[in-house]
Specification:
The complex is a heterodimer. Chain A is mainly alpha-helical. By secondary structure, chain B is mostly helical. Chain B has one domain. In chain B, a hairpin with a 3-residue loop joins strand 1 and strand 2. In chain B, helix 1 packs antiparallel against helix 2. Chain B is elongated, with a radius of gyration of 16 Å. Classes of the chains: A mainly alpha, B mainly alpha.
């Protein structure tokens, strides 16, 4: 009888906790929609540049927050703690500290140049830039599908991640509506429904707020996930360590952690080095390209360049510490230690549910969703911008002189074409997200990033090498596609250098291949005219 | 801009080399009794990268961008 009463009380507690978390998440969505609505009031009607690039008006702080929010995904919180639980502290050096260096380098070397030429010559997208720089009017037909196809796995990661998080952190809220075979997920909002709501919220504030709304939402969401990450760390440390003194609590929490998690004794040196190339993808993300163009002036880049590595540290280190503490015996359910890889994405959610209040659990869910949505919004806007700008206006229907705005509610067909295209891409990603549910978000992201990193030599050469030709850029892009497909279908996320026992990532041969082909082909093909080169390479 | 300013690239090469801290690879020593030394090193590394960018953006900001 007592057991039944206890089970009933536990179910009631789970129901209440689940409802509280749902309410926190709903409130968070409402705030985001409100931000999008407020941003609408600041839009300059029928002004394409304002909708897509916020009229080049974004200052240092907003640029920092929007760039940081866009580059951080759910992996920064959920994935990092899970990966630290599985493989220990090495994940910080392998993925985070190197990103701090390389991302800022990309902002400095690529972002500032792209902004300068974009403002001077009126570029809105990467295709605009390459078309002008390489004197290749039809390059959009070639480049657009490549950039889009690489972006879809990235969007997919956000769609899958948001549904998973909502389901796990609302468990118990609706036991009659959403039963589940796994007790830990019973009563949670199903991932297909959670993903759908997230996509709808992001679409609404992107459609109405444009780039300004996106930048504001990114800023707000970045603050949310940074503050909540640190708060969660503190609360879990206090509970796990059994002391109100943070230092003592942290010392207690780590004392029983196996040495394999507090060192990198099981981590490959060559793989650690190979990961250095992955962050180069930031130099070629089309959605970041669009964010760079929003800057008010070149000096606005200084704050993002300086603070980006520090912000990465603030977000990642607490999550990795929590993941490492979880490796101590008894912190997690016993069966999770037998199959750590299968359970790694549940680690943070489990610790939050067990050691904090329902309100904190709801806030953490909001924080993780913030990290996901702050990337999704820029990607959605970018997809619409690229299609309208690079394909529709260029090859299907050239614009009239008056209205070019995505936001305009006039009868301008491109408005509806852009919105329809965004919805189409989101719908494809959503369906793929349901089909591929359970696939590793980390693996999806690494493949996506590897493709973009493979394109890095092209944008770098376009900015700093007069010898780059359109044929060289196209040949390098084809090389990226062929090598990417080869390694993807060969099935290896890691591969051995022939004749050695050094394991590396496919990004290494992909980037090396594109670089060599780009140089060789450019040396033997026709360069752009001196008139164009002199515009980009001042004496 | 002169992106190939020797000080910028020297700083970057040094930071890239320092990133691979093989000397702490197998150590599980806890700094302050709470943070593994391999993680503490990379925390310090992140701070060093931040400080490096402070110096590079203030001392070596490209002249053509200063006019924009």
């Amino acid at each position: 009888m007592e057991i039944l009463a206890q089970a009933n009380a536990n179910a009631t507690d789970a129901f209440s906790a689940g409802i509280v978390r749902v309410l926190v998440i709903v409130t968070y969505f409402a705030i985001l929609l409100l931000l999008g609505g407020v941003a609408t009031a600041f839009l300059k009607k029928n002004n394409n540049k304002d909708y897509l690039l916020a009229s080049h008006s974004i200052g240092p702080f907003l640029l920092l927050m929007s760039l940081f929010g866009t580059t951080m995904t759910s992996f920064a919180m959920v994935g990092s703690s899970g990966e630290a639980f599985v493989s220990g502290i090495g994940v910080y050096g392998k993925l985070a500290s190197i990103s701090g260096l390389i991302h800022s380098l990309c902002f400095f070397v690529i972002g500032t140049r792209v902004w300068k030429y974009g403002k001077k010559f009126g570029h809105t997208t990467q295709v605009d830039f390459f078309r002008d720089r390489l004197e290749s009017p039809r390059i959009g037909l070639f480049l657009f599908p490549v950039l889009l196809l690489l972006l879809i796995p990235y969007i997919l990661g956000g769609v899958i991640g948001s549904g998973t998080i909502i389901q796990s952190l609302t468990a118990g809220a609706f036991p009659d509506w959403f039963p589940h075979k796994q007790p830990a997920l019973a009563g949670g909002i199903p991932s297909y429904l959670g993903s759908l709501v997230v996509c709808a919220v992001v679409l609404i504030y992107v459609f109405f707020g444009g780039m300004r709304g996106t930048a504001w939402a990114n800023c707000f969401q970045t603050i949310v996930f940074m503050v909540l990450g640190v708060l969660t760390f503190y609360l879990i440390a206090i509970k796990l360590g059994g002391s109100n003194n943070l230092l003592t609590a942290m010392q207690n929490a780590i004392k029983d952690v196996p040495a394999t998690r507090t060192s990198r004794s099981e981590m490959s040196h060559s793989l650690f080095i190979a990961y250095m190339l992955v962050p180069l993808s930031v130099g070629t993300f089309p959605h970041l390209f669009q964010h760079w163009l929003t800057a008010k002036n070149a000096a606005a880049f200084k704050l993002p360049i300086i603070m980006h590595p520090f912000f990465i540290m603030i977000v990642w280190v607490p999550c990795i510490m929590v993941g490492v503490w979880a490796a101590a015996p008894g912190v997690l359910p016993a069966e999770w230690y037998a199959n750590p890889s299968e359970n790694q994405n549940k680690v943070l959610g489990y610790l939050v549910t067990k050691h904090t209040t329902p309100v904190v659990g709801g806030l953490l869910a909001a924080g993780v969703l913030a990290a996901i949505m702050s990337s999704l919004d820029s990607q959605f806007l970018c997809v619409g911008t690229m299609f309208t700008n690079d394909i529709y206006r260029r090859f299907i229907r050239k614009p009239n002189a008056n209205s070019h705005s995505l936001h305009a509610t006039s009868g301008e067909p491109s408005v509806w074409v852009a919105r329809t295209f965004i919805i189409l891409i989101v719908a494809i990603s959503y369906v793929l997200g349901i089909v591929l549910e359970g696939r590793s978000i980390f693996a999806l992201s690494i493949w996506c990033f590897s493709g973009y990193a493979g394109l890095f030599p092209i944008i770098f050469a376009a900015l700093y090498w007069r010898g780059l030709t359109a044929t060289g850029a196209q040949a390098a892009t084809v090389t990226m596609i062929v090598t990417w497909c080869y390694f993807f279908y060969a099935g290896g996320e890691e591969l051995l250098i022939p004749g050695t026992d050094w394991d590396i990532l496919p990004v290494v041969p992909i980037t090396l291949g594109t670089t060599v082909v780009m140089i060789v082909v450019s040396l033997v093909t026709k360069k752009p005219t001196e008139k164009t080169l002199s515009r980009y390479f001042e004496a | 801009m002169n992106p190939f300013n020797k000080w910028i690239w020297l700083a970057l090469v040094v930071l890239l080399l320092l990133h691979h801290d093989f000397w702490f690879w197998d150590s599980s020593y806890l700094v302050g009794g709470f943070m593994p030394i391999g993680l503490a090193y990379h925390v310090a590394y992140s701070i060093a990268v931040t400080i490096t960018w402070v110096v590079l953006t203030s001392k070596f900001w490209p002249a053509d961008l200063s006019q924009e």
